[in-house]
Amino acid sequence: MIAIGGSIGTGLFLGAGGRLAQGGAGLVFAYAVCGIFAFLMVRALGELAIRRPSSGAFVSYSREFLGEKGAYITGWMFFLDWATTVMADITAVALYLHYWKLFKPVPQWLLALIALAVVFALNMMSVKMFGEAEFWFAAIKVATIIGFMLIAIGAIIFHAHTGTAPDGTAYTAGVHNITQFGGFMPHGVPIMLSLTLGVVYAFGGTEMVGVAAGETQDAQKVLPKAINSMIVRIFVFYIGSVLLMALVLPYMAYSSDESPFVTFFSGINVPYAGDIIQVVVLTAALSSLNAGLYATGRTLRSMAIAGSGPRFAEKLNKHKVPFGGIIITSALGLVGVVLNAVLAEDAFNVIMDLAGIGIAGTWSMILITHIAFLRKVKKGEEQRPEYRMPWAPFTDYISLAFYVVVVLSNLWSDSGRKTLALFAVVIVALIAGWFYARGRIQANLMDEMLDTEIDENQ
Questions:
Q1: What's 171's DSSP letter?
Q2: 27 three-state secondary structure
Q3: How far apart are CA 233 and CA 148, in angstroms?
Q4: Residues 12-38: b if buried by 16+ CB within 10 A, e if exposed
Q5: Architecture of the domain made up of 2-457
Q6: Is 1:134 a contact under the CB 8 Å cutoff?
Q7: Mean local confidence (pLDDT), 337-352
Q8: Is 442 in contact with 449 (CB distance < 8 Å)?
Q9: Contact at 8 Å (CB) between 362 and 207?
Q10: What does the alpha-carbon distance between residue 48 and residue 70 come to, in Å, rounded to a whole number?
Q11: Would you say 303 and 313 are in contact if contact means Cβ atoms under 8 Å apart?
């Protein structure tokens, strides 16, 4: 459930609108390509997880095949992924609330701060509370997407009215929304490439299946089915939804500050449809925010125990919740609040692209770990399970090259250059953090070795 909640969030419910407005129907192709590479990454992770299921997932595998430095990079990239997703989600909540006149006078940064505080309080409660909330969040999102797809298909079949242009021209659903208005990629390939990092962000969370593997009793039987069925659902929800968005309205009808689902339902003239969907996408953002704080709190605690994270992150409250890690993530979430204050218009795009870099970094480390595993297989030190990443290691290298191109394509846009500048600061901080943490990591390893020797001698 956490994997579903994390992967179906603001990337689709808000990000797709801005991406469609900038790139046109070609966004469908971008989603399809990114979906294929997301699938390859999950297959690589699945092969590692079936070989040795671990709740530590890809961080644990990086430690095994790349050493402590590899585990450090993987862990912090995963943390960056979810911490920036938290920032993106509080920004989305603020933008969604501005849909209603009641909240328009309230500053965007203040709404983002309130959203962070509410979900922080929820995460301080028991895991049971988290699970119940996440179940209902996910159920509402899935029902909304299915409902949208059914209504959109009906609108296309009957060429229904779906909105009105600023000049009064009526919009109708149909293939003409792709073939006209500048064609498939109205602003060219470079612009579409610069938007792809936001699409990678939309697929973030698919790697959580590796975390779930550690809690599965029969991983060799259950995990392949889970991976294949999850990818099918993601492809249907994402590629299907974006294709239908492109068919029901021309690309210029969408905007970066409104959910494309709200744009569609507001245009079909059904009373209160826009308001109802706005509530739904608001719950989607809260769901992703909820999952983000849940994941980062536990990731930071695991890293702290290994010596690569701050000691404060080890702390648990009376509900066995890693409140230290959640507090640290929430404190970083305040950076998102500041960005909402100083970059209100660009805040979501900058944060979304930064989260996309974190996701691309996490996925790249999974692939590099898989390559290291295959090298051990070649030496006869390991054996591959029956469930394998297809055409590896060729597909590993192709995937890595794709992620590099996607990240560098951000140089084509102003917000992308801001994102890369922020990421450069993050890299410097990570390098400094390694030199600070490596002594503690080595001390922890020495303690483990001594404990092992004592146990063997007893």
A1: E
A2: helix
A3: 15
A4: bbbbbbbbbbbbbbbbbbbbeebbebb
A5: Up-down Bundle (1.20)
A6: yes
A7: 86
A8: no
A9: yes
A10: 15
A11: yes
Closest CA to 18 of 195, 173, 275, 164: 195
As a dihedral over the C-alpha atoms of residue 350, residue 351, residue 352, residue 353, rounded to 10 degrees, the angle is 50
Instruction: Give the whole-angstrom CA distance, residue 140 versus residue 447.
Output: 48
Cα 93 from Cα 266, distance rounded (Å): 19
pLDDT digits (tens, 9 = 90+) for 372-389: 999 999 999 999 998 899
Task: Quote the tokens at residue 395.
Answer: 């597909």
- Which pLDDT score is estimated for 293? 82
pLDDT at 437 over 90: no
* Gyration radius of the chain over CA positions: 22
- pLDDT 10s digits, 40-84: 999 999 899 888 877 666 788 998 999 988 989 998 998 888 889
DSSP-derived 3-state class of residue 46: helix
- Using alpha carbons, select from 362, 363, 347, 332 the residue that is nearest to residue 419: 347
| Closest among 390, 363, 76, 361 to 224, alpha carbons compared | 390
DSSP secondary-structure letter at 169?
A: P
DSSP result, 350-383:
HHHHHHHHHHHHHHHHHHHHHHHHHHHHHTTS--
Please work out, in degrees rounded to the nearest 5, the angle formed at the alpha carbon of residue 86 by the alpha carbons of 423 and 437: 55
DSSP string, 91-114: HHHHHHHTTSTTTTTS-HHHHHHH
